[in-house]
Write a structure and sequence with these properties.
The complex is a heterodimer of chains A (315) and B (503). Chain A has 315 residues and is an all-beta fold. Chain A is 1% helix and 56% strand. Chain A has one helix and 19 strands. A twelve-stranded antiparallel β-barrel of chain A has the order 1-4-5-7-8-9-10-15-16-17-18-19. In chain A, strands 2-3 form a two-stranded antiparallel ribbon. In chain A, strands 11-14 form a two-stranded antiparallel sheet. In chain A, a hairpin with a 6-residue loop joins β17 and β18 (273-286). Chain B has helices at 2-6, 56-70, 74-84, 87-102, 133-161, 166-169, 188-203, 208-224, 230-252, 263-275, 306-313, 324-339, 342-352, 359-375, 379-407, 412-415, 434-449, 454-470, 476-499. Chain B is elongated. Chain B starts with a helix and ends with a helix. Classes of the chains: A mainly beta (315), B mainly alpha (503).
Chain lengths: 315, 503
């Protein structure tokens, strides 16, 4: 039932919470649900930034102050088999600026669905090595406003992603997981019919650059506890830089590198129940806010196989 | 997923990227008799008679076209097609692009003051210009008006000299553009480009390379397309540049250069409002920013004189900031701020035309251009109608800025900080609404030029106007008075249109 190590890192941030949110779950860790087990839960995330990168120039802006994003995510992970899990996530997001006159935004953001497949899970001496292939995507659940950065709650892009992930688990205690992801992002429609990137475009359609992410996490993992450090990098493959004193735009070249930690604890008296928490800090970026993010979650495992609930992380 | 990804083309096509070649319903051969704006008449600048189409020099120019055409590349074909959509259309789009690029307020100095862009050092930060709405309204007006006058002169000489297009002289020249009975000397395309280049060098001095490159492409496209020989282009370009000089002289003396004002003048507005017993406007930018071009209301207008502006166009005073009416109107805006719907946000953002956009005047240029394309106007009628529109928009800016700084009224968010806005709060007084004034003026003249769409334009203007209330940055009286003032400005443009000989 370690299913839900919240992947804090990937949470929002930024000018654009977007696609990062989609990884807010186990689609980026090495833990699988048992067959017919369903883990469901909720997570609260708080993220805030005062400094941001205008292109590559770091600055603050007294006309917006700090931008805070709060998110409540409802998520689940179902074990089709121990090699194959299905995951979903639906966040509600609210943003606010601490200064200036701009109105915050809120609403249900994007549904994400993922398939997580583990073709290889092999014992080698004291260690176990697993290979994962993960595919999925996200799509907006509501007609929220994309073109009101930095206060938009998402980009409205429909995304598709493919991820390759390797997990090394030593002595049933220590682990390291690394993954690389390619994210395809569909074009979006905005409310105006012209906009300027590095040229004037007479259309309400915006070409969204694709993105790549790299994630490395390592730490301690047992049936009852997980403690990990996480490194994450998001690189937008294209897009343009904000010009001086300009507003951000959904198709900006948004990059971010973050470091964070996560904890997970499974209650011994009620082993279906687990608590998670984490925090991360963006340490480098481009066209986005330097957010500090913290989150906490509660998850519960329902076992539909009528066997005792077990996850196989330490098998 | 690979299949899904590869099946999704992401390239965006702009609305006018593939606009077909302009084939006017009427070539307006007599446009040389139309009333110019600044020129004393179509012959104020002379254009020498062209060399005969049988002369050796002309044959050389014909051969130049043949050489281009024999080695034409795909890219050159695209260029020909792009420019064939219309010279006035394309230069209007280029101008809108430069406005959007430069519509960015300068970042503050370390001491909390703000630097001013400097026309003599346009590439240093902050780049010149800050193409805000008044600045850009003026830019659109000068470019359009200069192009119109230059075309009136060109059409005079076209009819006078009656030189046929190259494809009519030599049947072996391909016309990659639609053939026309309009004489080709001087080239109407080069006239438009020449006037645009000169005006835009003044207005966007840091972008001369870009502007010059567009002009070269334009002229080349007309050569390759078989529309003009080189001497058509050279005569046209020279005429366009000469006419533009006359507009440049006007621009240098139209008082826009002093519109930024001084600290003493900024303070005086505040003192005057307080003396009247009103709450003065205060900048809500941090640090406080001097108001945008506060003396733009003194700039020289096109369609009426300054006295008319004060006596006839300046709106009556807004509700006193101490009145119940003012409180009521502020409450109304608070309720839009708190209860805005998704559809209202769409309307706010559709019309916002804020930072890094081509501004509300540019938006109305885009609306006009989309419709002019389907009207199949001749180049000279395109220019005339764009000039009427843009003189209206600039005069609307002047009238609106006059009211804004005569009354110096506070924004809703200044009066009640609980009022949060769904678009950027402009840094100048509230009464009257610029969007409303621009839209009232534009809808009035466009409704006259294309009567079938009068109701559509008026509905657009009302929507643009109320969008500023939805966005919680204007009171109802700002919007209503602005629309009305704009309508009056537009009526002056109609008066001109009725008597300029183009009917």
């Amino acid at each position: 039932m370690k299913q839900f190590i919240p992947n804090k890192i990937l949470m929002l941030l930024i000018f654009l919470s977007v696609s990062w949110r989609s990884s807010a779950q186990t689609d980026i860790d090495a833990i699988m649900m048992e067959k017919n087990a369903f883990c469901a839960g909720g997570m609260y995330t708080y993220s805030s930034w005062k400094n941001y990168w205008e292109g590559t120039l770091k600055r603050s802006n007294e006309n917006i102050g700090s931008i805070t994003t709060q998110m409540i995510g409802v998520m689940g992970n179902y074990g089709v088999g121990k090699k194959l899990n299905l995951l979903f996530n639906i966040p509600y997001v609210a943003t606010k600026a601490s200064a200036g006159t701009l109105h915050g935004m809120s609403g249900v953001q994007d549904l994400s669905l993922m398939i997580k497949y583990r073709p290889v899970n092999k014992k080698i001496g004291d260690a176990r090595v697993a290979v994962f292939g993960i595919a999925g995507g996200s799509t907006p659940l509501a007609n929220y406003v994309a073109d009101f950065l930095p206060l938009s709650i998402g980009s409205r892009s429909t995304t598709a992603m493919a991820r390759l992930m390797l997990d090394y688990y030593y002595n049933s205690k220590w682990f390291a997981t690394a993954s690389a992801t390619y994210v395809y992002r569909s074009n979006i429609k905005i409310d105006r019919n012209s906009y300027y990137t590095d040229e004037l475009i007479l259309s309400n359609e915006v070409q969204m650059p694709n993105a790549a992410t790299f994630n490395v996490r390592a730490g301690y993992r047992t049936q009852w506890w997980i403690a990990e450090a996480v490194f994450n990098n998001w690189t937008t493959l294209g897009g343009f830089d904000m010009t001086r004193n300009n507003m951000p735009f959904p198709s900006n070249r948004m990059n971010a590198t973050a470091l964070g930690i996560n904890l997970k604890y499974v209650l011994k008296k009620v082993p279906q129940l687990s608590l998670t928490g984490g925090a991360n800090q963006i340490i480098a970026g481009r066209n986005m806010g330097q957010s500090l993010t913290a989150n906490g979650g509660v998850f519960y495992v329902f076992d539909f196989s009528r066997k005792s609930t077990k996850s196989d992380h330490n098998k | 997923m690979i299949a899904f990804v590869s099946s999704c083309k992401k390239e965006i096509q702009g609305r006018t990227d593939k606009t077909g070649a302009l084939t006017p319903l009427n070539i307006d051969l007599n446009a040389g008799t139309w009333k110019p704006i600044l020129l004393t008449g179509p012959t104020e600048f002379s254009v020498a008679a062209p060399i005969a189409t049988t002369s050796p020099d002309y044959i050389i120019q014909i051969n130049e076209i043949k050489t281009w055409q024999s080695t034409i590349t795909e890219k050159e074909r695209e260029l020909v097609n792009y420019w064939s959509a219309g010279a006035v259309l394309r230069w209007n789009e280029i101008l809108r692009e430069l406005v959007a690029k430069h519509n960015l307020a300068p970042y503050q100095n370390a001491d909390g003051t703000y630097p001013l862009p400097n026309a003599n050092n346009p590439l240093a930060y902050p780049q010149f210009p800050f193409a805000n709405p008044p600045y850009s309204a003026r830019a659109y007006a000068y470019v359009s008006a200069a192009q119109y006058d230059a075309l009136v002169a060109a059409f005079h000489y076209k009819k006078l000299y009656n030189r046929p297009a190259p494809y009519k002289v030599d049947a072996s020249i391909q016309s990659l553009i639609p053939q026309s009975d309009l004489p080709s000397y001087p080239s109407e395309d080069a006239v438009v480009a020449g006037a645009a280049v000169e005006m835009m060098k003044l207005l966007f001095p840091g972008d001369q390379d870009f502007i010059q490159q567009k002009a070269e492409e334009h002229k080349r496209a007309r050569l390759i397309g078989g529309a003009n020989v080189r001497s058509d282009l050279e005569a046209g370009e020279a005429l366009g540049r000469q006419v533009a000089q006359k507009f440049i002289v006007r621009a240098r003396g139209d008082r826009a250069g002093a519109a930024a004002g001084t600290q003493a003048q900024w303070s005086q507005f505040e003192t005057d409002a307080v003396a009247k017993g009103e709450t003065p406007w205060i900048s809500l930018d941090v640090p406080k920013r001097p108001p945008m071009l506060p003396l733009f209301g003194k700039v020289k207008t096109w369609l009426f004189d300054s006295l008319t502006m004060v006596t006839t166009l300046r709106p009556l005073p807004p509700p006193s900031t101490k009145s119940d009416q003012f409180k009521k109107e502020t409450e109304e805006i608070l309720s839009y701020s708190k209860n805005i719907t998704r559809e209202q946000i769409r309307i706010v953002h559709f019309w916002a035309d804020g930072v890094a956009t081509y501004t509300p005047p540019g938006h109305w240029n885009a609306i006009a251009a989309d419709d002019f394309i389907s009207q199949r106007f001749s180049e000279v009628r395109w220019a005339r109608n764009m000039a009427l529109l843009n003189m209206s928009l600039m005069d609307a800016a002047v009238a609106c800025w006059d009211a804004k700084f005569f009354y110096f009224n506070p924004r809703p968010s200044q009066v009640n900080p609980a009022i949060k806005t769904t678009t950027g709060l402009p840094n100048f007084p509230s009464y009257t609404s610029g969007h409303s004034t621009f839209s009232g003026a534009a809808a009035t003249i466009l409704g006259y030029l294309i009567p079938g769409k009068k109701d559509v334009y008026e509905a657009m203007a009302r929507e643009a106007s109320i969008s500023r209330m939805y966005g919680a940055i204007h009171y109802r009286s700002d919007c209503e008075a602005g629309l009305l003032c704009g309508n009056k400005v537009g009526a002056y443009a109609i008066q001109r249109a009725q008597t300029d000989g183009a009917q």
